[in-house]
Design brief:
Elements: H1 2-6, H2 18-37, H3 40-58, H4 69-87, H5 99-126, H6 133-157
Helix pairs in contact: 2-3, 3-4, 4-5
Length: about 160
């Protein structure tokens, strides 16, 4: 799946895919090296490179919006989750019936949710909305909600 993400610029016919392709291949190589060496820093770097590949492609402006972006987002999240899962230390709890299946289902639901959110963002980015007070107010509420979610998650992980 990581190879599909890394080589996705090859299926586009815009002719301007050299930089994303280089980033994707570098990300794929770093991911393979990180997984082989069980080195978390290399895996994090690989995920950053694969994300940068998509960011560079999308930075070209609204004409670069792609209906496949939600699929890329879900696959990207799946690659990242499975890579980190493969680096985790094996514990006896994984031998319990249903533990791995439950975690896999949770990851798949998170990836599906990420794809849905990405689809909403693509739809919103392509919508012909002009600025104004209502749009600015919606942005303020969205930013406040995002900070509230981050604060809630951070509070639950503090020990």
């Amino acid at each position: 799946m990581a190879a599909g993400l890394a080589l996705s610029p090859l299926v586009r016919d815009s002719g301007h895919e050299a930089v994303p392709l280089v980033l994707g291949i570098a990300g794929l190589l770093a991911l393979c090296a990180g997984l082989a060496a069980r080195w978390g820093a290399a895996v994090a770097f690989a995920i950053a490179l694969l994300g940068a590949e998509q960011a560079v492609r999308l930075a070209r402006g609204p004409d670069a919006l792609d209906p496949w972006t939600p699929l890329y987002a879900g696959a990207f999240l799946l690659v990242a989750e499975l890579a980190w899962w493969s680096l985790e230390e094996r514990v006896p709890a994984w031998a319990e019936r249903g533990a791995a299946t439950g975690r896999l289902l949770t990851i798949l639901f998170a990836c599906a949710g990420g794809s849905v959110v990405a689809a909403l963002v693509v739809l919103a980015a392509g919508a012909p909305i002009h600025g104004g007070f209502a749009l600015e107010l919606a942005g303020v509420f969205a930013a406040t909600a995002a900070l509230a979610v981050i604060a809630a998650v951070a509070r639950t992980h503090v020990r």
